[in-house]
Automatic annotation (TrEMBL), chain A:
This protein's record includes keyword Iron: no
Major localization listed first in the record, in broad terms: membrane
Organism this protein belongs to: Levilactobacillus namurensis DSM 19117
Designated name of the protein: Peptide ABC transporter permease
Localization: Cell membrane
Transmembrane segments: 17-35, 55-82, 103-126, 146-170, 201-221, 227-252, 283-304, 484-506, 537-559, 571-596
From TrEMBL, chain B:
Organism: Levilactobacillus namurensis DSM 19117
Gene3D superfamilies on file: P-loop containing nucleotide triphosphate hydrolases
Sequence similarity: Belongs to the ABC transporter superfamily.
Listed GO biological process terms: amino acid transport
Protein name per UniProt: Peptide ABC transporter ATPase
Domain ABC transporter: 6-246
InterPro entries assigned: AAA+_ATPase, ABC_transporter-like_ATP-bd, MacB-like_ATP-bd, P-loop_NTPase
GO molecular function (one): transmembrane transporter activity
Keywords annotated in UniProt: Amino-acid transport, ATP-binding, Nucleotide-binding, Transport
Pfam families attached to this UniProt entry: ABC_tran (PF00005)
Gene Ontology cellular component list: membrane protein complex
């Protein structure tokens, strides 16, 4: 009988359950996808790109797990807020506490298990399509990427079901401890937080100081090394909490005394916020951090990738080097916007490549001058022959010009024209080409590089990259991988933070349902109510959003050493921010839509 | 009758969505309330009292008939007009108080004025005046959670009359109160009615509450079954008369 009643209760709130289930399913799916990437040994081993980023993956997985815990906590409180009235009613009607307790436990667990199973299935599907798609877009071809990986499935299942068992136990305890009266009227109790100005002032100052330490730690990552990250994480979390705790409430209190507060629904809005922000401080802190991490991950990831062309021209002495160019290759060369071109004759005797000094004197080999000035356009210089013999000719850029691509080689030698003529060996010519801007000639360079690799393949132990074009391609792969992780984590964080916020806000719906019904009765226009709700929820979204943006702006300092000039973690962040904020706003609108649906009284009493 | 604040003609209300069995709660109701009158509406539980009050206060729309409140044809109003009508023309006291727990008593009382955009100083004056009338001046800074039922209902009454509505309506306002608080509230309603000449329409199933009214209408089977006038009787006598009426009424 009680089971039947409980099922009827669930049925009545189909929509809320759907929201909850959808959120949990999505979270499990995201977690599975990430776990699959992070734990799949075959995949990690097979891809150098991933290997180098494995720390990032590991760090991401830990963060994701932590956030999942928090996420499930909020989802659970949403569930409880929906159900406690029903549970209270059952008990009032004489159901045994124990029996109701079993019901609570089962309900939470069933919901969690369903979400986990569906989530993992969805994750497997998404791994197959979404991850492949993302990688493709970034021009990465990673081998051994399977969508179904048993350890990842188990890992996800154990974590989620484990967390749900905890959540069920928590709900059970809550229920056993709370009186029936409190269960029935939980959403009607107003806890008016006490204000202690001195304490709050101190807390605010302390918060500011902590956040400052966190920001400093991120900027000083070169001195602090890896300790910077946990230090920043702890201080910023605590600091943000204290700042919210101290200021938001004080600001609301201050506003409440103004004349503005006495117009239309403003007073009600402030009352609502006052009533909630305290309760929300912890969540707003977490959300602001999530926001920062999501935005940070995407900004850094895409920043690397986007800024590659900036460094592309400073990667070496020439863009491509072509041996014995044929007609087709010559045709392609003609299409390049060249800054410099030189052709040298090579004779290969045994393991040594010989060059003709006369040729090198006529067209000296141009080398790049390395500088660490920001945004400097790369400069090139030449050396006298004597000097070149000692230094320039021994540089990697020059060495890999041999047709063998470093496979089985000895240092190249430069000999006089007469000696060169006397040498008995296979003769080649090599043409080095440097374009003005690599980014502008990528296509033609690609064709040239491919045909060169086909005609003069590098042996197994040879050099992988010859010329800036190939370096560019390789770095593109690595940074593309970083970008992928950035996007992946960013989207995952964003999705979770938004649904955390959504659950927390939606948990307040039953209480607001009554409040807005009251407002409707005393004659508040519907447009005014809608506007009020939009403002209230908007503020709850805006506070962590603003804090998150500030965190990111400071946090990007951390990547300065990694993205040295002419790259900069701050370059072109405007677009990334705009897209991200756009997504956030969409989440806000969805939440608002759901909320309006939940709490706006119908035009007439009959619905 | 001259200067009717409320005029109801042939009011009909049928509940039930398409596909459900319709239920007619009000079947052609007629009555009016004169300006300054204190009228009670009595009837058994489920007789349609709340339904009637919802029609009067535009919270719900009638299936048929006319409702005119303070010269406005309520049935012809739409959207914002409805909300504005509720905000300006009627004051409402509910059984469950309907106070916003996130606002202080003062803010709750000021809400109808804030909605109208009243200047802050005028608002303060009005709030303090009404608070004095209802002796709740010392409760103004408190939140509803810190008030007793009787105090809450007095705050609700203050909110209902602070903007000088044409009529004050109450749906079983004493329903959730103990007898002392109930009596205090009814005395207050009488005072408001007499001193401010505000029309009061009180819906109740409780004969004691009804005995404070000047005239009582009895609803039965969705219509006004009978009517009692207090005239010059004292309250006790009137109370007895109501009890007698109820006895015959229910047979
Ligand atoms: N929204 C509704 N939908 C269907 N029936 C309703 C609705 N509201 C009230 N009723 C029915 O109309 C009748 C009158 O109800 P109500 O006006 O609340 O009575 P009272 O307030 O006198 O106790 C009852 O039989 C009730 O079941
Ligand atoms: Mg009723």
């Amino acid at each position: 009988m009680l089971t039947k009643l409980a099922l009827a209760g669930v049925k009545n709130r189909r929509r809320d359950y759907l929201v909850l289930l959808a959120g949990l399913t999505m979270s499990a799916a995201i977690f599975y996808m990430f776990a699959n990437l992070a734990t799949n040994q075959a995949f990690i081993k097979a891809n150098a790109v991933v290997q180098s980023a494995s720390i990032v993956f590991g760090f991401g997985a830990v963060l994701l797990a932590l956030i999942t815990v928090v996420y499930i906590m909020y989802a659970n409180s949403f569930l409880l807020s929906m159900r406690q009235h029903d549970y209270g009613l059952f008990m009032m009607l004489g159901a045994k506490r124990k029996r109701v307790g079993e019901l609570v436990f089962l309900e939470t667990l069933i919901l969690g298990t369903v979400a986990t199973v569906v989530g993992i299935l969805l994750g497997i599907l998404a791994s197959k399509f979404l991850v492949g798609f993302l990688l493709d877009r970034l021009g990465l071809h990673l081998s051994h990427l399977v969508s179904f990986y048993l350890p990842a499935v188990l890992f996800t299942a154990v974590l989620y079901v484990g967390l749900f068992i905890l959540a069920s136990l928590f709900n059970l305890m809550r229920l056993m401890r709370t009186t029936v009266q409190n269960l029935l009227h939980a959403d009607q109790q107003a806890n008016q937080p006490k204000v202690r100005p001195v304490r709050q002032f101190i807390a605010g100052l302390l918060g500011l100081a902590l956040v400052a330490v966190g920001y400093w730690a991120m900027a000083a990552i070169e001195q602090l090394k890896l300790t910077a990250i946990p230090l920043a994480l702890v201080t910023i979390t605590l600091g943000t909490y204290l700042i919210f705790h101290a200021t938001v409430l004080a600001v609301i209190r201050g506003l409440r005394r103004t004349k503005w507060a006495r117009k239309h629904l403003n007073g009600f809005l402030l009352g609502q916020l006052n009533f909630r922000v305290h309760d929300y401080t912890r969540m707003l802190t977490i959300v602001s951090l999530l926001f920062a991490m999501a935005l940070g991950a995407i900004t850094v990831g895409s920043g690397y990738h986007r800024q590659m062309p900036l460094v592309a021209d400073s990667l070496g002495d020439y863009s491509v080097a072509i041996h014995n160019p044929n007609a087709q290759q010559k045709h392609w060369m003609g299409q390049l916007d060249l800054a410099h071109q030189a052709t040298y004759t090579q004779k290969v005797v045994g393991q040594t490549t010989y060059y003709n000094a006369a040729e090198l004197k006529r067209t000296p080999y141009q080398q790049q001058k390395y500088s660490n000035k920001t945004n400097a356009t790369p400069k090139f210089y030449t050396e006298s022959l004597a000097k070149f013999k000692k230094s320039g000719s021994q540089s990697m850029n020059f060495i890999v010009l041999n047709p063998n691509k470093l496979g089985d080689f000895k240092a190249p030698k430069i000999v006089s024209a007469a000696a060169f003529a006397r040498l008995n060996g296979k003769t080649y010519t090599v043409t080095t080409l440097r374009v003005k801007h690599l980014a502008n000639d990528l296509e033609t360079l690609g064709k040239l590089s491919k045909s060169e690799q086909r005609r003069f393949p590098a042996p197994h132990d040879g050099s992988l990259v010859v010329g800036t074009y190939e370096s560019y391609q390789m770095m593109n792969g690595v940074f593309g991988g970083l970008e992928f992780i950035g996007y992946f984590l960013g989207i995952a964080f964003l999705a979770m933070l938004a649904s955390c916020l959504m659950f927390k806000i939606l948990s307040g719906a039953p209480g607001d349902l009554r409040r807005y019904a009251m407002l409707n009765k005393i004659g508040v226009r519907r447009s005014l109510m809608r506007g009020g709700l939009a403002k209230e929820i908007g503020i709850l979204f805006a506070i962590p959003g603003i804090m998150g943006i500030v965190d990111v702006l400071f946090g990007l300092q951390m990547f300065k050493p990694l993205m040295s000039a002419p790259m900069s973690p701050y370059l072109g962040i405007g677009t990334t921010f705009a897209i991200f904020i756009g997504l956030y706003v969409i989440y806000y609108l969805i939440t608002l839509g759901l909320y309006l649906n939940l709490v706006m009284p119908s035009e007439t009493l009959q619905d | 009758m001259t200067n009717a604040v409320v005029d109801v003609h042939n009011l009909e209300k049928t509940y039930g969505k398409a596909g459900e069995r319709p239920y007619t709660a009000l079947k052609g109701l007629n009555f009016s309330v004169a300006e300054g009158e204190f009228v009670g509406i009595m009837g058994a539980s489920g007789s349609g009292k709340t339904t009637l009050l919802n029609m009067l206060s535009t919270l719900d729309t009638p299936t048929n008939g006319d409702v005119i409140v303070n010269g406005h044809d309520v049935t012809k109003m739409r959207g914002n007009q409805l909300a504005d009508f509720r905000a300006q023309e009627v004051g409402f006291i509910f059984q469950d108080f309907n106070l916003l727990e996130s606002l202080t008593a003062e803010e709750n009382i000021g809400l109808p004025l804030a909605l109208k955009g009243t200047a802050s100083r005028v608002m303060d004056q009005a709030i303090h005046q009404v608070a004095e009338t209802l002796s709740i001046t010392d409760l103004l800074k408190k939140y509803p959670a810190q008030l007793s039922g009787g105090q809450k209902q007095r705050v609700a009454a203050a909110r209902a009359i602070v903007h000088q509505p044409a009529i004050l309506m109450g749906d079983e306002p004493t329903g959730a109160l103990d007898s002392t608080s109930a009596r205090e509230l009814l005395d207050l309603l009488t005072t408001i009615n007499q001193e401010q000449q505000m029309s009061v329409l009180l819906v109740t199933h409780d004969p004691f509450s009804a005995s404070f009214c000047q005239r009582i209408l009895f609803i039965k089977d969705g219509q006004i079954g009978s009517e009692l006038r207090r005239d010059d009787q004292d309250r006790r006598t009137f109370y007895q008369q109501i009890l007698t009426e109820l006895g015959t009424f229910s047979e």
